[in-house]
Specification:
Transmembrane segments: 29-48, 60-85, 97-116, 128-150, 162-181, 187-206
Largest sheet: none
Oligomer: single chain
Strand content: under 5%
Structural class: mainly alpha
Protein name: Protease PrsW
InterPro entries: Peptidase_PrsW_arch/bac, PrsW
Distance between the termini: 32 Å
Number of helices: 8
Pfam families: PrsW-protease
Keywords: Cell membrane, Hydrolase, Membrane, Protease, Transmembrane, Transmembrane helix
C-alpha cells in the first residue's frame, strides 16, 4: 500500500522536474522542498485538530470544506513556500516558484496518501487509485496556481499576486472538497469541470512562465502542453 501511495507522488515530481527545462533546480533544494512538505503535514494536522475542536462543522460540509481543510492546508503550504523561497538564490526565474510549490505540496500529499491508503477501515487499493486520480493531481494543481501568482508578484510586479497566491488555490481547494463531501445533484459533473479548468489553466500558466525564463534561448518555440 505504501508503494501505491508513493507512485503518483513520484510521477508528479518527475513531471514538474521535466517541465523545468531551462535551469533546473539543484537536487538539494528539491529535497528541501519535499521535506518542507512532509513537515507541513504535521503542522497542518495540529492546526486542523485545533480548528475542529474550536469550530465543529461535521454537519456543515460547505464550512468544513472551506475552513477545516482548504484554509488550513493552503495557508500553511504558502507559509512554508515563502520560507523556502526567501533569500533563495536559486529562485531566479519565474517557473521556479511552481517547482518549489509542487514539491512542497506533493510532500504533504505523500504523507496524507500513506495515512489514507493504509487506514484499516477506509484504506486499500480502491482508495489508492481514487487518490491517484483526484487528490494527488489536485494538490499538485493547486500548488501550480500558488506558484504562478507568487512569480507574477515577484517578476512581473503584480502586487495582487501576493493575495492571489493564497486566494486562488484556496478557492479551488475549497470547492474541490465541498463537491467531494456534499450530497448534491450533479456534484460529479461539477467536480470534473473544476478539475478540467484546473488542468487547462495550470498548463497555460506553466507555459507562460517558461516563456518568461531569462535562460530560454531566443526565438525558441514553446508547446502549450
Amino acid at each position: 500500500m505504501i508503494q501505491a501511495a508513493t507512485a503518483p507522488i513520484i510521477i508528479g515530481l518527475f513531471y514538474i522536474y521535466i517541465r523545468d527545462k531551462y535551469e533546473k533546480e539543484p537536487w538539494q533544494m528539491l529535497i528541501w522542498g519535499l521535506l518542507f512538505g512532509v513537515y507541513a503535514t504535521f503542522v497542518i494536522y495540529g492546526v486542523g485538530q485545533w480548528v475542529e475542536r474550536m469550530f465543529p462543522l461535521t454537519d456543515m460540509p460547505f464550512a468544513a470544506a472551506f475552513l477545516q481543510a482548504a484554509l488550513v492546508e493552503e495557508s500553511v503550504k504558502l507559509l512554508f513556500l515563502l520560507a523556502l523561497l526567501a533569500r533563495n538564490p536559486q529562485y531566479n526565474e519565474p517557473f521556479d516558484a511552481i517547482v518549489y510549490a509542487v514539491f512542497i505540496s506533493l510532500g504533504f500529499a505523500w504523507i496524507e496518501n500513506i495515512v489514507y491508503v493504509t487506514h484499516p477501515l477506509w484504506g486499500g487499493i480502491g482508495t489508492a487509485l481514487a487518490r491517484a486520480v483526484l487528490s494527488v493531481p489536485g494538490h499538485g494543481l493547486f500548488s501550480v496556481q500558488m506558484g504562478y501568482w507568487l512569480s507574477e508578484a515577484k517578476f512581473a510586479g503584480r502586487k495582487v499576486g501576493w493575495l492571489l497566491a493564497f486566494l486562488v488555490p484556496y478557492l479551488y481547494h475549497g470547492w474541490y472538497n465541498y463537491l467531494l463531501l456534499a450530497d448534491v445533484p450533479g456534484a460529479e459533473v461539477f467536480l470534473a469541470l473544476l478539475m478540467g479548468l484546473l488542468i487547462i489553466t495550470s498548463l497555460r500558466y506553466m507555459s507562460k512562465l517558461l516563456k518568461k525564463s531569462p535562460f530560454r534561448p531566443t526565438g525558441e518555440k514553446l508547446s502549450q502542453k
